Amino acid sequence: METICGIDEAGKGPLLGPLVLCGVVIHPQDVQKLVDIGVKDSKFLTPKKREELFPKIKTIIKDYMLTIVEPREIDKAVESETLNLNWMEAIKSAIIVNYLKPDKAIIDCPSTNIQAYTDYMKQFLKQDTELQLEHKAERYPVVAAASILAKVTRDREIEKLKLKYGDFGSGYPSDKKAQDFLKANWKKYPELFRQSWAPYKKVANQTKLGEFK
Q1: Which of 154, 145, 190 is nearest to 20 (CA)?
Q2: Cα–Cα distance between 154 and 21 in angstroms, integer?
Q3: What's the number of domains the chain is made of?
């Protein structure tokens, strides 16, 4: 029986915490069930609604895979001469496809060059899966379901980090609370931050320059 996979990520932009990718696989005749329970792009749902949908989605889909990418691995990709964040995401997506083995995969493409991203990802596929990469692919219920599982998982990881390290707000560079937390803790908790991000480098370099004055 034919299967369709949807892949999306959560947490690409924050300056701390993990990036989470998720792939869900479903039989086409079950897609309407996702629509019926209210599945749509996680960005348009409240945290409470996403939590409510999380277990419901898992009862409808055939299988799923979550991948949590920690800050160190993100830094390694960003600072690599042969890799970047998009290429790393393409490799992780291929691993998800290889695991779920769908007949077709619909993927929210992070790159402006969809063809180049598709060609790169194909190098890592182990089976003949039809790829459909698009921008704003969350309009497809199967991708929206993946976005919800990814977002809920990341939010849970962030709450664990806050219990351990303290409240750092949303973690996005534009968040004043996150900015203040970075300034106060960049050296104390280096493992928490994406050190390849410009805000981290700026704070670290300013502090180092201050130390040598």
Answers
A1: 154
A2: 9
A3: 1
**What 3-state class would DSSP assign to 55?**
helix
Angle between helices 85-100 and 71-79 (to 10 degrees): 120
Q: Which pLDDT tens digit goes with each residue over 82-91?
A: 899 999 999 9
Relative to beta strand 63-69, strand 19-26 is: antiparallel
3-class SS of residue 8? strand
Asked, for residue 203, whether it belongs to a domain, the answer is no
Cβ pair 196, 74 in contact under 8 A: yes
Residue 201 has pLDDT above 80, yes or no: yes
Domain containing 42 equals 4-163
The residue whose two tokens read 């960049």 is 186
**Alpha-carbon span 50 to 47, nearest angstrom:** 5
Mean pLDDT computed over 173-186: 94
- The answer to whether residue 88 is domain-embedded is yes
Q: Is the dihedral of CA 185, 191, 192, 196 positive or negative?
A: positive
- Alpha-carbon distance of 153 to 2, in angstroms, equals 27
- Collect all residues with Cβ–Cβ distance below 8 Å to 120 and sequence separation of at least 6: 87, 90
Distances (CA, A) of 20 to 7, 37, 92, 167, 187: 11, 23, 10, 20, 25
